[in-house]
Specification:
- The complex is a heterodimer of chains A (about 280) and B (about 425).
- Chain A contains eleven helices and eleven strands.
- With about 280 residues, chain A is an alpha/beta fold.
- A seven-stranded mixed sheet of chain A has the order 1-11-10-4-9-8-7, sandwiched between helices. A four-stranded antiparallel sheet of chain A has the order 3-2-5-6, with helices on one face.
- Chain A starts with a helix and ends in a 5-residue tail after the last helix.
- With about 425 residues, chain B is mainly α.
- The chains are: A alpha/beta (about 280), B mainly alpha (about 425).
Chain lengths: ~280, ~425
């Protein structure tokens, strides 16, 4: 069965993404995006919109390019040697890859949470206030403390750490560290938050807390999340995009993807025939 | 049946493996033992030879500060002071101690008991308290190095008499019986510069020279090395040019140090006309030598900072410069400092390149700044080891002890700093 579906994809040379890739009021738009690592192509001709205040989940087997796709959205791929992005990626109509755009400003507007919790080896306070400090968002210490409390409250961490703000962030548990990273990301009030498998290093209880948090955050932020867990995608996201071997196969409302997938590859993946 | 066969085979191989492991442990222990024995031997030899140098022989004399004897009438006239016959003071006092000595030759032998510098020590004493002029006081006066060598060896029960006459030995015996000759702490060793007379020679000049040279080296090589390492590691594109630079930095670390000396001679002294023998040129040459070490260790320290920290900083919208300054540098600093201290320890022990740039000169004065002629500790050891006087043997070992204690102190600081500054993540 697996063999058959892979063949099907290879035969489909002029493949077109199935489902609802576009929306009326997009936050971010991607058109004809190709990504290369040196001479190896990682992403083929992706076209997709991300709507305001939606949670979009990227799923797919390992090495399908979903993380690469996510990292093109705040140009984290710039740090990778030999990485090249073709096509057009816009946020609010502004080209992210135009030479006029400052990547520092972009990353302040598009925050990121990584797979492995990576708090700075500094105090909890310094972790959260680092972004506001470097971007000059707070003029006084009082402002800074306000941002600190607000961000930690939003990340659901305030009650747990309010008495030990000056202790190192690395001393927290894995789940707390990841929520600290989320607090750090939202402290600069980004418009979009990218999450690259944020729960893959966490236990089920910590995962549940993060998922709860994602749901709450979606009221104020646009969230793009890469996940290996289909259940997670089903629980937190509004739309789901399925990637396969660097190609965007299907984008549809999450419920539809998991109940009535349109493309046979999506169906094969979610029913566990490969991945 | 086959199960028990396998078991027997496993047990057989197990005894072999255990034996091999035990053998391996012993190889390691023996290797460490050999290393420790070599170090112990070195220390025993050096301490055994050098401990005597920390004490010197002094003779007790009743010194009368007689203005006529010195040939002065005014203590504030510097010309008179420098022309004065200061050595006459201890000579006269010694002759009064042994009034029987009359022949010219015996008088000269008697005078030879005293160090040439004894008179100048008395001059310094008089200048500190001018009221002593015309009075008499009992002073411990520095003895000659031959007397020092003989007296120490005689106290150890293995008298070395080769450089003395029977009469001199008899005089020393008399002084000893009267309690007028004894070993005292040798403050000259720590307070004076080099001298042709072993009893007056000290390592202060060389130690200060070493210090100034090292300060110069550190001020130049640490900032340059760290900047080079940061640029190569964090900012430079990876292409043929940077590969070429990297290979050459590694090559530079393997270049024999004397080559750097020749380079320094050709460039700094002959081309840029930096004066010879001064800590500036020494520091420049040692900078060339330690730079590769510092660059390599700093790059290793930067590499060991986990990439997740870099990603976190960049993801927060930090510029690369902020990422390096706020996150990479603080985490890499302990490693960089350790590298710098190890580089400095290397520089402190370096002799060959400094010979090429004139820091091997015989310099009596203690340097006052970076542009005063100076020598350094290892070169001082080299110079003393080369001197024919027997008394320089123990001086050499004492200087080695001082150099080693500096090195041990620096390496201990490196370990302490690393423990202190290291942060876990």
């Amino acid at each position: 069965m697996q063999l058959k579906s892979e063949q099907a994809l290879e035969l489909d040379e002029s493949h077109v993404t199935v489902g609802q890739s576009f929306c009326d009021d997009p936050k971010m738009t991607m058109r004809n995006v190709d990504v290369f690592y040196s001479d190896k192509q990682a992403i083929y001709d992706v076209n997709i919109d991300i709507a305001k205040n939606e949670v979009i989940a990227m799923i797919g087997p390992s090495g399908c390019g979903k993380s690469t796709f996510l990292r093109t959205l705040n140009r984290m791929n710039d740090t990778v040697e030999g990485c090249r992005v073709d096509g057009q990626i816009c946020m609010d109509g502004q080209d992210l890859y135009s030479p006029k755009l400052d990547v520092v400003e972009l990353r302040a507007r598009v925050g990121m949470v990584f797979q492995k919790p990576n708090p700075f080896p500094k105090s909890i306070r310094d972790n959260v206030t680092y972004g506001p400090k470097i971007h000059g968002l707070a003029d006084t210490r009082v402002d800074l403390d306000e941002i600190l409390e607000k961000s930690l409250r939003k990340a659901g961490l305030w009650e747990e750490v309010k008495d030990r703000l000056d202790q190192p962030g690395t001393g927290l548990s894995g789940g707390q560290q990841q929520r600290l990273c989320i607090a750090r990301a939202i402290a600069v009030s980004p418009e979009v938050i990218l999450m690259d498998e944020p729960c893959s290093a966490l236990d089920p209880i910590a995962t549940a807390k993060i998922e709860e948090l994602i749901k709450e955050l979606s009221q104020n932020f646009t969230i793009a999340i890469v996940t290996h867990s289909m259940q997670q995608a089903a629980r937190v996201s509004h739309r789901t995009a399925y990637f396969h071997l660097g190609k965007l196969i299907e984008v549809n409302p999450t419920e539809q993807v998991f109940t009535m997938p349109k493309h046979q590859l999506t169906e094969a993946y979610i029913t566990g025939r490969f991945g | 049946m086959s199960d028990s066969k396998t078991l027997i085979k496993i047990q057989h191989s197990l005894t072999q493996r255990n034996r091999a492991e035990a053998r391996f442990h012993w190889y390691g222990r023996i290797a460490i033992l050999i290393g420790l024995m070599a170090v112990a031997l070195l220390f025993i030899d050096i301490v055994g030879k050098g401990h005597g140098a920390f004490r010197a022989t002094y003779i007790n004399l009743d010194i009368r500060y007689d203005a006529d004897l010195i040939g002065i009438d005014n203590l504030s006239d510097t010309e008179q002071l420098s022309a004065g016959n200061w050595q006459a003071l201890p000579k006269t006092a010694l002759r009064e101690r042994f009034p029987d000595v009359s022949s010219r030759r015996d008088k000269r032998r008697l005078n030879n008991l005293l160090s040439n510098g004894a008179g100048f020590d008395l001059k310094d004493r008089l200048l500190v308290s001018p009221t002593l002029l015309g009075k008499t006081e009992s002073v411990w006066v520095l003895a000659d190095d031959d007397i020092d060598t003989y007296y120490k060896s005689w106290l150890d029960g293995n008298a070395y008499e080769a450089r003395l006459t029977g009469q001199q030995i008899q005089w020393i015996g008399e002084l000893h019986e009267q309690g007028s000759i004894k070993l005292k702490f040798n403050s000259n060793l720590f307070n004076r510069g080099d001298s042709r007379e072993p009893e007056q020679a000290g390592i202060r000049g060389a130690a200060v020279g070493s210090f100034l040279t090292l300060v110069m080296t550190l001020m130049l090589s640490f900032p340059i090395g760290v900047c080079a390492a940061i640029y190569l590691e964090e900012f430079a594109p990876k292409n043929r040019l940077t590969d070429f630079i990297e290979v050459n930095i590694n090559n530079l670390a393997a270049v024999p140090s004397i080559i750097f000396g020749l380079l320094g001679l050709a460039i700094f002294i002959n081309f840029f006309h930096v004066p010879r023998s001064v800590p500036i040129v020494g520091g420049l040459v040692l900078t060339l030598m330690t730079l590769p070490t510092i660059i390599i260790t700093s790059r290793a320290a930067i590499k060991s900072v986990p990439p997740s920290i870099r990603e976190a900083a960049l993801g927060m919208g930090a510029s690369r410069y902020q990422m390096v300054l706020h996150h990479v540098l603080p985490l890499a600093l302990p490693g960089m400092l350790t590298g710098a201290i190890i580089g400095m320890a290397q520089a402190l022990g370096e002799t060959a390149p400094l010979l090429m740039i004139g820091m091997v000169a015989f310099i009596v004065d203690i340097p006052n700044g970076f542009s005063d002629p100076a020598t350094v500790l290892p070169v001082q050891i080299f110079l003393w080891a080369d001197s024919p006087e027997r008394a320089f043997v123990e001086k050499t070992s004492a200087a080695i002890m001082v150099l080693l204690s500096f090195l041990i102190a620096m390496n201990t600081t490196a370990v302490w700093l690393r423990r202190r500054l290291e942060r876990r993540w």
